[in-house]
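To whoever is on call:

I kicked off a structure prediction for a single chain this morning and the downstream step that reads the tokens threw a length-mismatch warning. I double-checked the sequence; it's 169 residues and nothing unusual in it as far as I can see. Pasting both halves so you can look.
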Amino acid sequence: MPKAIVVVGHGAPPSDVPRDLVMRLKALEGRRRAAGSPMGDEERELDSKVRQWPRSVETDPYAAGVENLAEAVRRASPGVRVAVAFNEFCAPSLEQAVEQLYAEGVREIDVVPTMFTQGGVHSEIEIPETLEALRRDHPDLMLHYAWPFDADAIASLLLATIARRAKAG
């Protein structure tokens, strides 16, 4: 059975997208969340427009950084399909990335967010809700959520990075 990893980043609007589009999208999202209602047509259209906005390293260095991280995961995991997804502002969404892998025949996916600390809406609420909906849609799909991260392991990573930079001068 093919296996995959999805690296999920937060997402950021590209620097050249009109700010009024992003402000309108966030306003609609806020009202929808407060009401507990599903996404409406206008929000869906704006979300798609922002996610599909053309990007480059210059206009969206965050997405480029997530892609670089995914490439490092690929190098460290030969033979495992690695995909990228974003919570907001960038494509593909987590749903789109998982659906694409499922269409390719993947039936086991590890989902790994780039958010290290607890307390965030994306990692604590949105990703688990998305995974639960995907599990309902695809009962034969094994989705593993690799979160929360071990704080001691993250601390070791941070300290090793500090030590390496200090040594480099």
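Update from on-call: the warning came from a stale cache, not from the record. Cleared it. Sanity check on the structure: The two ends are 47 Å apart (CA to CA).
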